Amino acid sequence: MGMLKTICYKSDVNKTLQLLEFEALFNQTQLKNDSHNITGFLVKRNDVFFQVLEGNPIIIDTVYEDIKKDRRHSNITEFLNTSIPQLSFKTFDIGYSVIKDVDTLYSLQQFVANLNQQKHENSPLFLEIIEGLLSDH
């Protein structure tokens, strides 16, 4: 498999975006990341995006550069940008996940809680952010 990398960030959703633009964003993200063998997820919760990308470092860095230029969000807060020994989210879903409802967010929370019990790298951080999103009404 070689080296792997993860990038994890949170950002503010551009409030002028319409529903159809979100659908387009979600579909593009899923297709692009699946085709690049990127695992992870994108969560939209109220006015926040939370994204985890993991995979080949060159691809991850390239995709992240595009993300940073995207006008559909602002105020990127980067939590992780680091190499990892293994993928965390390969088994969460087939490929890359886009999470737009609270039920799926709860199942992600359970998945990450399980990773956390297995002492999986970075899982405490993911859990903290996800729980923050769930409690944020």
From TrEMBL:
<dbReference type="InterPro" id="IPR036046">
    <property type="entry name" value="Acylphosphatase-like_dom_sf"/>
</dbReference>
<dbReference type="InterPro" id="IPR007024">
    <property type="entry name" value="BLUF_domain"/>
</dbReference>
<dbReference type="GO" id="GO:0009882">
    <property type="term" value="F:blue light photoreceptor activity"/>
</dbReference>
<dbReference type="Pfam" id="PF04940">
    <property type="entry name" value="BLUF"/>
</dbReference>
<feature type="domain" description="BLUF">
    <location>
        <begin position="4"/>
        <end position="95"/>
    </location>
</feature>
<dbReference type="GO" id="GO:0071949">
    <property type="term" value="F:FAD binding"/>
</dbReference>
<protein>
    <submittedName>
        <fullName>Sensors of blue-light using FAD</fullName>
    </submittedName>
</protein>
